[in-house]
């Protein structure tokens, strides 16, 4: 409760303080559950993660956040399916066994490498704001931002889900398998039941008060008024029925009874009803967009552009650091972390000023990752101590526009999937319902997102508009950073992570560890975290990162040691395949 009150109080203190307070509410826990009994392959993958070594493969590989989901994807790949086919199986199982993080009621970003055309592209499955929404949606009668959880819990925060449309679009474009067959693993598991993992049980217990507010949610997660216990057998017949409907027609999510049920549930929620309409669902489409790339260590680091800030901010961090020889510095050297920390602060300053849905707000996308601009920004890193202050830069625009800094909050409940198939296609997808358990509204066996709270609650600052303000039909800015690293025109690494706005730091650090410091993918995803976004250096408690507290403090950084719970899943593509799964979560990599 103290943490929640801190989030609420911090909203009045500006975007940096609010973001840090929000991210202190860590809605994830770390367990490996009882998954070793699933199969010898799963047991071996769990052991590899515990031993700190990558999983090896030659033909295909999948890495994701839950062994049930990974096994479903592996079965598809082993049968000759593509990475797009496997994504459908993995995501629909994740929505069942890891419902607090992602699912049909949320959104996703996909970065895709197509082996046949040798082209890189992205699909935007981000949620959209209702057409009836107004920029002042999250302001009270006095024009002040709502308390965070007053905005999150209920219908006020729900956008039109994009994940079903993204999966259907990707599979139709790049799949080989039968759509209905790809949903069957999740249908069977939902019908027959699965054992609740210790991680899911812990998260339900932690959030029991909010989960109890809505009858359908409470009856599922809190049977007889008590949180589900680890090891309990859980079925979800409603979810199985929903998937059977989608098996006949994937567009059924956006038409007819499913869409109507979502609209009715959202708009009738008490005390915070929404404004969704069936027209909002009819108009929804996943959008193909160009990838955003930036150079680092002789590679091109490519990812999702607006409305995600992920690829731009990761690209800015790495692009600035490419002007220094990080490889010559030891990973334990505080000077390496001075460079990384202040490069991140500079990138986050640009993020807060410029980044939003470019369909609504003109953005200097090319200018933000232009090597000349980044080289100029990198000159600010030339000292020995922390920068006393940072401010947004002035990237090249094709026209001028005045914007104010963002004040949105992102909480770290998300999931990431990396897949390489036997044809050479690569998928890197980050998927979310935003806060843990989203809006806490449940419809037809799945939770609905609270993605609209990723918009800035304020519309203007000192009379200047905020780029990431809410507008009808707009997609909220995200930090999700699904990434494919390219080398000489071919994919070399697929990676991504959950973690709210810390996603950017987690992904950038892992790429640095792999490319500059020569760590294998398992070492890179397991490496202790040190993340700086707004000036305070967050160091992972109980790890060697905490040893940096004194040196970084002496350089002038504010330093805080705390739990940092990423969920990195990575696949190295070189001579064969190597998979890494974050030891902080229950996921694995499987390959053949």
Automatic annotation (TrEMBL):
Record-listed E.C. numbers: 2.3.2.2, 3.4.19.13
Pfam families in the cross-refs: G_glu_transpept
Family matches, as InterPro entries: GGT_bact, GGT_lsub, GGT_peptidase, GGT_ssub_C, Ntn_hydrolases_N
Secretion signal, residue range per the UniProt entry: 1-18
Catalyzed reactions: an S-substituted glutathione + H2O = an S-substituted L-cysteinylglycine + L-glutamate; glutathione + H2O = L-cysteinylglycine + L-glutamate; an N-terminal (5-L-glutamyl)-[peptide] + an alpha-amino acid = 5-L-glutamyl amino acid + an N-terminal L-alpha-aminoacyl-[peptide]
Any one Gene Ontology molecular-function term assigned to this protein's record: glutathione hydrolase activity
Active-site residue numbers: 414 (nucleophile)
Pathway listed: Sulfur metabolism; glutathione metabolism
Domain of life the protein comes from: Bacteria
Keyword Metal-binding: no
Post-translational modification: Cleaved by autocatalysis into a large and a small subunit.
Keyword match Transferase: yes
Residues engaged in binding L-glutamate: 126, 454, 478-479, 500
Subunit composition and interactions: This enzyme consists of two polypeptide chains, which are synthesized in precursor form from a single polypeptide.
Family: Belongs to the gamma-glutamyltransferase family.
Full protein name: Glutathione hydrolase proenzyme
Organism: Pseudosulfitobacter pseudonitzschiae
């Amino acid at each position: 409760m103290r943490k929640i009150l801190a989030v609420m109080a911090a909203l009045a203190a500006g975007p940096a303080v609010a973001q840090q307070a929000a991210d202190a509410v860590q809605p994830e826990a770390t367990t490996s559950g009882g998954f070793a009994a699933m199969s010898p392959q799963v047991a071996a993958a769990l052991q590899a993660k515990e031993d700190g070594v990558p999983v090896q493969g030659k033909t295909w590989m999948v890495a994701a956040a839950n062994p049930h989901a990974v096994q479903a994807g592996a079965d598809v790949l082993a049968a000759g399916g593509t990475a797009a086919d496997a994504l459908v199986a993995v995501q629909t199982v994740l929505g069942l066994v890891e419902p607090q993080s992602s699912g049909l009621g949320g959104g996703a970003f996909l970065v895709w490498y197509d082996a046949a055309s040798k082209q890189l592209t992205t699909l935007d499955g981000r949620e959209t704001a209702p057409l009836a929404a107004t920029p002042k949606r999250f302001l009270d009668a006095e024009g002040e931002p709502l308390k965070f959880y007053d905005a999150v819990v209920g219908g006020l925060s729900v956008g039109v889900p994009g994940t079903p449309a993204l999966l259907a679009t990707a599979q139709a474009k790049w799949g080989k398998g039968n759509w209905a067959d790809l949903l069957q693993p999740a249908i069977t598991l939902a019908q027959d039941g699965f054992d609740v993992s210790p991680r899911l049980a812990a998260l339900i217990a932690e959030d029991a008060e909010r989960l109890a507010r809505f009858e359908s949610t409470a009856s599922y997660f809190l049977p007889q008024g008590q949180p589900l216990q680890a090891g309990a057998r859980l079925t979800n017949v409603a979810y199985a029925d929903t998937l059977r409907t989608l098996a006949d027609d994937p567009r059924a999510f956006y038409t007819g009874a499913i869409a109507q049920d979502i609209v009715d549930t959202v708009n009738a929620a008490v005390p915070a009803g929404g404004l969704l309409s069936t027209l909002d669902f009819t108009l929804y489409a996943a959008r193909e967009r160009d990838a955003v790339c930036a150079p680092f260590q002789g590679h091109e680091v490519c990812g999702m552009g607006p409305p995600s800030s992920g690829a731009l901010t990761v690209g800015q961090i790495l692009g600035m650091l490419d002007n220094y020889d990080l490889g010559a510095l030891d990973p334990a050297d505080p000077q390496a972390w001075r460079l990384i920390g202040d490069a991140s602060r500079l990138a986050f300053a640009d993020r807060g000023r410029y980044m939003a849905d470019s369909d609504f707000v003109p953005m200097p996308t090319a200018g933000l990752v232009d090597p000349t601009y980044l080289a100029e920004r990198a000159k600010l890193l030339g000292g020995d101590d922390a920068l006393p202050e940072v401010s947004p830069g002035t990237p090249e625009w094709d026209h001028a526009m005045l914007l104010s800094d963002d004040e949105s909050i992102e909480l770290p409940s998300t999931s990431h999937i990396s897949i390489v198939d036997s044809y050479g296609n690569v998928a890197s997808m980050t998927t979310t319902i935003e806060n843990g358990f989203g809006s806490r509204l449940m419809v037809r066996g799945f939770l609905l997102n609270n993605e609209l709270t990723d918009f800035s609650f304020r519309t203007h600052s000192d009379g200047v508009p905020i780029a990431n303000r809410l507008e009808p039909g707009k997609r909220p800015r995200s930090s999700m950073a699904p990434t494919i690293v390219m080398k000489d025109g071919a994919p070399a690494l697929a990676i991504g992570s959950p973690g709210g706005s810390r996603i950017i730091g987690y992904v950038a650090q892992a790429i640095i560890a792999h490319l500059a410091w020569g760590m294998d993918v398992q070492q890179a995803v397991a490496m202790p975290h040190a993340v700086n976004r707004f000036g305070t250096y967050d160091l992972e408690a109980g790890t060697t990162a905490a040893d940096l507290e004194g040196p970084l403090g002496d350089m002038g950084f504010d330093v805080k040691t705390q739990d940092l719970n990423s969920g990195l899943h990575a696949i190295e593509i070189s001579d064969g395949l190597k998979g890494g799964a974050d030891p902080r979560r229950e996921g694995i990599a499987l390959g053949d």
